[in-house]
Design brief:
Blueprint lengths: L34 E7 L3 H7 L1 H4 L22 E2 L5 E4 L3 E4 L5 H12 L7 E6 L3 E6 L5 E4 L7 H7 L7 E12 L2 E7 L19 E6 L1 H32 L1
Parallel strand pairs: 6-10
Antiparallel strand pairs: 1-2, 1-5, 3-4, 6-7, 8-9, 8-10
């Protein structure tokens, strides 16, 4: 396999330093059925324990499959955003968070919790945002999407990079949009991917790395050789048994 078939982000530009135009990730907004970790910190330890109950107590792994990194504890319960876009928080009641960014939600929750606790520290994070990587990578799995700044190269790095059989010029990305499922083909060998709208990973993205023809050929030959190897092994065992009689 030649370097042109495996070297990422190639370009015909021989300049040592290349300045790419800035691109910004799409900031995720809270949607119905999202699961949020709403962490509250204050000087009132008892209130903290009550408010953070959903972040500490977890579902079992069997109830929430496909976890990465913390399977022993399982998926935290979190605060579920109901179909009307509200979450229910102890001491506060229902708050409508749908359509807000995490920072906006934290500010809104802080204002409501401040009515009961003095100067609370509030942190809001998604618990259910994930992406999946399948095909010719070393660790295919579903991974937690920790923030909006996760890039396609870093997502592939989490999966242990592509195997030698992965087609780097034909990576498929499936993304759910308001208009429906969007399927795109990405060429990792071309530097243009760094300016692509698919450079940043979003919640629910599925990345599939197709196998090369070399692997298909190798697998076919392996299957074809199995009967031959089996026959030779059988003949050897039979001959050995005859000699030992």
């Amino acid at each position: 396999m030649s370097p042109k078939q495996i070297v990422y982000f190639q370009s015909t530009d021989s300049t040592q330093t290349v300045l790419l135009p800035p691109i910004k990730p799409v900031v995720a907004r809270i949607q119905p059925n999202d699961i949020l970790a709403i962490t509250v910190g204050s000087f009132n330890q008892e209130s903290n324990e009550i408010l953070n109950f959903a972040n500490v107590n977890s579902l079992t792994t069997s109830s929430y499959p496909g976890l990465q990194g913390n399977s022993a504890k399982g998926q935290p319960l979190g605060y579920l955003v109901d179909t009307s876009g509200h979450v229910e928080i102890p001491f506060v009641g229902k708050i409508k968070l749908v359509g807000l960014t995490l920072d906006q939600a934290a500010n809104l929750v802080r204002g409501e919790v401040s009515k009961s606790l003095k100067d609370p520290a509030i942190n809001v994070r998604f618990l259910n945002h994930k992406y999946s990587i399948l095909g010719e990578v070393n660790r295919p799995a579903t991974y937690n999407l920790l923030d909006d700044n996760t890039t396609l190269p870093s997502a592939l790095a989490m999966a242990g990079d592509l195997t030698v059989y992965g087609q780097r010029n034909n990576v498929m990305l499936i993304r759910e949009t308001e208009k429906g499922r969007e399927i795109v083909k990405i060429n990792l060998l071309n530097r243009d991917v760094l300016n692509s709208p698919y450079y940043y990973i979003r919640n629910g993205d599925i990345i599939y790395v197709e196998p090369s023809k070399a692997k298909v050929t190798f697998n076919d030959r392996t299957v074809q050789l199995i009967p031959i190897v089996t026959s030779i092994t059988t003949a050897f065992v039979v001959a050995l048994n005859l000699l030992l009689r």
